Structure formats: structure tokens, C-alpha cells
Amino acid sequence: MAQTSSVQEAVKLDNDTSKERSGVQSIERAFAILGHIAQHQEGISLAELSKCVGLHTSTTFHLVRTMVELGVVRQAKATKRYHLGRTIFSLAASSSSEVDLIATATPFLEELARESGESSHLALRSGNDVVIAARVAGTGAFQLVERAGGLRPAHCTGLGKVLLAAMPEAQFESYLATAELQAWTPKTITDPTQLRAEIERVRQSGVGFDDAEFNDEVRCVAAPIYDFTGQAVGAVGVSGPIWRMNLQRMDLITQRVRTTAAELSEELGYRRSA
Fold first, then answer.
1. Angle at 131 between CA 249 and CA 139, to 5 degrees
2. Is it the case that residue 17 has pLDDT exceeding 70?
3. Which CATH architecture has domain 2-84?
4. Pick the residue with more confidence: 25 or 159?
5. Distance from C-alpha of 130 to C-alpha of 121, rounded to nearest angstrom
6. What are the extents of the domains in the chain?
7. Most C-beta atoms within 10 A of its C-beta, which of 56, 83, 116, 121?
8. pLDDT at position 157, please?
9. What is the pLDDT of residue 144?
């Protein structure tokens, strides 16, 4: 009996050790997968990922599927490629830094530009102005020539209006008291009372429009993006020539901008309250 008991204990110990090794191995593989996904800003396919981590496709699929369910990995609907997921950003406060935000937003901007045919932008606040942190050119002819890093006035751009609308009331009033509301085109709003009413419309609708207010040949529509704290950390938008961005087409593009902003916000961990 004693010998049998010893054998049983040895078998149990061996099984426990095997389970522990298996668990450690799964963790190591999961981190390897995360590491390779993080290195591919444009996303990575299942086949490429399997090759990178040196695992069979089915093994990689089961691991990455679990990671998708946990939210640490996201699979883009259009390309089926894998990207880092919202849980990664929720766990790390540093994920809200500008560099990480740009890296996260870029695939969304690429898809938005591809769907709309127009240039897509990510904008951040910079004092009383906004800075174009990232830009993806559209597929249509006669694209606007503009580089990332450029400053735009907030009061007459769709991106800027969205960021102004996200300000607390006291901060917005301070902006009105100090900002130079320069007239860039005949349509630019330069009266503080009119701008206050315009920003209230943006708050109510959730989108900001620039109807040839900054450039008399350009229209723009933008929407805010939120992080996991519920703070507006930037704005995403589309701009194009007014002769192509007619009212009928603007309706479709506005919906795409809304969808992109919502998906990007979700990727950053944002959850809309009920």
C-alpha cells in the first residue's frame, strides 16, 4: 500500500509539473505573439504571425483567438490582420502618450482614407491651435498637399471645433478671451458669440464641420476620440475639395468619420456610459 501511495504521489507531482510547464509555455508564447504584433504597425496576418513565433498555424490561431476574446489583441475587420487591443491600453497609463496614440490611430486613418477616398487626419490640441499629428492621403485625384505636424487654427476647422467642444466650459471661455479669431475666408466665424453657439452645436451633434472656413476650397468633418478615462484625447477627420465633398457625399463621409472615431475610442479603452 505504501509503495502504491508513493507511485500515485509521484504521478500527481509529475502531472502538476507538466501543467505548470504547459502554463508557463503558453504565457511565453502569448508574450511572443504580443511582441511581434507590436512590431507591426500595419498589423500582421495569422500566417505571418505563425512564422514569426515558430508555431503551427492552428496553435497560433487558438492562442491569438483567446487573446482577442480578452481584448489584448484586436483583429481588423477589413484586413483580418492583428493589432494590439484595448486592454493593453487600459492597463498602461503610458498608452495615452502621443506616440502610442498616433501608432494606434494610423490603421484607422488608413481605412478611413481608403473608404472615403479623401485625406484623413488625427489632430491634437496645441495651445489655442491644433496640430495635425498624423495624416493619410486619400485615393481620389487632386489630393491636398499637407504634411503632418502642421498647425491649424481651432475656431475655423472641423478638427479644432471638436477639440474646443471637448473643453470644460470655463476653459472654453478662457479660450474665447485670449484667442485671435482671425478671418481666413469670408465664411470664418470671428464673433465670439457666434462661435460659442457653433461649439454648442458641435457638442450636441458630436461632429464638427468646416465649410470652407479655413480654406475656401476645402470642406472637413471631424469627430472626437476618447481614451479609457473618458477624456477627449484628439480628433479624427476627413477633408477634401468642396466640389467633391458635396452635401450628399458629406452625409456618407460624416457617418464613416463617426464610426472611425467610435472604433478608435473603443480601441483606447473607452466605454460609453449607458
1. 35
2. no
3. Orthogonal Bundle (1.10)
4. 159
5. 11
6. 2-84, 92-267
7. 121
8. 94
9. 57
Task: Give DSSP secondary structure letters for the chain.
Answer: -HHHHHHHHHHHHHHHHHHHHHHHHHHHHHHHHHHHHHT-TT-B-HHHHHHHHT--HHHHHHHHHHHHHHTSEEE-TTT--EEE-HHHHHH-GGGGSHHHHHHHHHHHHHHHHHHHSSEEEEEEEETTEEEEEEEE--SSSS-----TT-EEESTTSHHHHHHHHTS-HHHHHHHHHH-----SSTT----HHHHHHHHHHHHHHS-EEEESSSSTTEEEEEEEEE-TTS-EEEEEEEEEETTTS-HHHHHHHHHHHHHHHHHHHHHTT-----
State the residue for C-alpha cell 483580418.
Answer: 80
Which residue shows C-alpha cell 480628433? 235
CATH code at 92-267: 3.30.450.40
